Amino acid sequence: MSTILQALRGMNDILPDEAERWEAYEFVLAAWAKSYGYRPLRTPLVEPTALFRRAIGEVTDIVEKEMYSFTDQLNGDHVSLRPEGTASCVRAVLQHNLLYDGPKRLYYHGPMFRHERPQKGRYRQFHQFGVEALGWLGPDVDAEHILMCARLWEELGIEDLRLEINSLGSAEERAQHRHALLAYFESHAGQLDQDASRRLHSNPLRILDSKNPDMQTLIRGAPMLIDHLGPDSKAHFDAVRGLLTEAGIQATVNSRLVRGLDYYNRTVFEWVSDRLGAQGTVCAGGRYDGLIAQLGGKPAPACGFAIGLERLMALVEDHPPAPTSTEVYVIHQGDEAATVAFAVADEMRRVGMSVILNCGGGSLKTQMRRADASGAVLAVIVGEDELRSGEVTLKPLRAQGEQWRTSRTDYIEQVAELLLGQNEDEQLEDENGRTGS
Ligand code: ATP
Ligand code: MG
């Protein structure tokens, strides 16, 4: 016997019960983004590797060691599975000149791929819902992003996400800070771990993002970028924070928040939960004013954020979703009856009912058993007798009651009435259950 092949490590199947929950979330998130005027964008899962190298930065964890990159065997192209959505979004906007008539609000969602060590909340294929605003300088739109997150948490009943915010200033301010940082870390070279030593001259800012506990004291003493902000960056940051305060949103300034992607400047933020262990960041984003020009476009400011859907969904204690309920099961016997059964099932689906048509034959008794197991409210039976008289039999499956025959011209109204009655009964039961508990 051959062994059953398994999915790749860190890449998960989402089985029907869970997948129904995913669809519900995707629907809620899309409606939420639309309510702020954002419009959907869908881009390929595979892009030229050069896009990510240029956008995210050569000396980042993602580009250095997390990307699924390969050579297309057919044409020799260097391609990568997308590790995030912003680079593709900006590429598409530039390729199709979407900014020609002004700024754009966009959202996307779907799988991203990073070769990381799989653990709870960290996968090799994971899903993001991302929001991007291209063409606005802010600070109003920066605040809009943070406030729309807060609104979403409220809608989903998540109460424990805290907001951390920082400003990365401008490229010049970061260069000044880099100087100061380099001098500081060079004078403490003995305390740097291997990763940090390697980064010292390529990207010292990223040392601040180290998760190594032994490095934390050294990092706490390092020069702060926030002390190197010029008046414009400072005014921008103060304005964002002012708008948050006005809206009653608490933000903690975390001067060590640097983000793992090189394209950010000015405002950066993360929403963090303490309930997810080391994988506590549920949503992260910020401003990336240089990226559009860096990817060859006419310079324009932009900002955005992405929500990790696995982490978000782990925070919400949902009631298990009610499985999509089958309402009607169609039973039939004989070739001619099968043709009618197909038509009958289709008629009911056209008016919005959820109908399973018996497949694979079986005696009437077998089909009745399947009908019961399907959870349907009633069975519609097309047998030889029904065929002759131009009727169908309706048999309630859950409620007590006899079956009866009715004409094929008006059975749908009776089915509808029966389903309605069943729904009302269930609602009553629900309400009694609630008041009773
Ligand atoms: P982390 O510090 O946890 O590695 P990151 O800074 O690499 O996160 P971003 O690139 O900012 O993450 O992605 C935005 C969000 O996407 C994260 O806050 C997280 O919720 C989610 N995310 C990122 N990588 C993964 C992953 N490997 N598995 C599951 N979710 C992820
Ligand atoms: Mg990461």
How are the elements arranged and paired?
Blueprint: H1 16-34, E1 39-40, E2 46-48, H2 49-56, H3 61-66, E3 69-71, E4 78-81, H4 86-95, E5 104-113, E6 125-134, H5 140-156, E7 162-167, H6 171-187, H7 194-199, H8 216-220, H9 231-246, E8 251-253, E9 265-272, E10 281-287, H10 291-294, E11 302-308, H11 309-315, E12 328-332, H12 335-350, E13 355-357, H13 364-373, E14 378-382, H14 384-389, E15 391-396, E16 404-407, H15 411-436
Bound molecules: adenosine-5'-triphosphate (ATP) and magnesium ion.
Magnesium ion binds at residues 61, 260.
Task: Describe the 3D structure.
The chain is an alpha+beta fold and 437 residues long. It has 2 domains: 16-169 and 229-315, Bira Bifunctional Protein, Domain 2 (BirA Bifunctional Protein, domain 2); 328-431, Anticodon-binding domain (Rossmann fold), CATH 3.40.50. 40% of the residues lie in helices and 20% in strands. It has 15 helices and 16 strands. The strands form 3 sheets. The chain has an 8-stranded mixed beta sheet, with helices on both faces. The longest helix is centred in the last third of the chain and has 26 residues, at 411-436. The model has no long low-confidence stretch (mean pLDDT 91). Residues 61, 260 line the site of magnesium ion.
